[in-house]
Give the backbone structure.
Amino acid sequence: MAAVASPYLIRAMTVADIPQVSEIERESFPTMWPQTAYKRELQQNAMARYLVVADRGAAPLNGADLANGAHGLGGAVRSLRRRLRGEATEAPEAEGLYLAGFLGLWFMLEECHVVTVAVREAKRRRGIGELLVITAIEMAQAKEQETLTLECRVSNTGAQALYLKYGFANVGLRKRYYTDNNEDALIMTTPPIGTPAFRTQFAQLRTAHSERWGAAQILHPEL
């Protein structure tokens, strides 16, 4: 069977990505971080790692497209016209490809805390959320973390199912954790991720994901 080609590329988030990240977050969460918070995370938080999934199959965007919210066909046409006029001179990775999702991690002692996972609404149900979970585990293993932990809304059963698939277990509850509606959060944590049993199961899940959705290209110094 022929290998599935993946259009996705995983790389570190940059300040130039923040407008698109905020756009994805707006679609995904009732309450948002201000853009200044992401800039502070990228530039000042040594514990933090933020990654994005870029879609190489979509036309790159520039600042004007993002400011106008033009990430569809019109934005793609305008971006192409600028390239033909020689106005776009930066490499796609520097200029900012169309982003499909993003991931935020904090590395605290021996635990990796998954701060945020979000996928653009138009790109959901294409394996990107699972790709982000895989990336989080791979980075935690590369940095020799013992476990990963996260919070998840009690109502978000879809996300819970994905996390359970990758070994996260419900270990507690944070009452009224979400400020928009005072919803509780489940605390979900993996078993030790460096054990042979976990690595074997994880490798099988990662292979199955790649066979279905394709292997994303990774451009990150810690992966």
User: Anything to note?
Assistant: The domain at 8-58+97-214 is CATH 3.40.630.30 (Aminopeptidase). The chain has eight helices and eight strands.
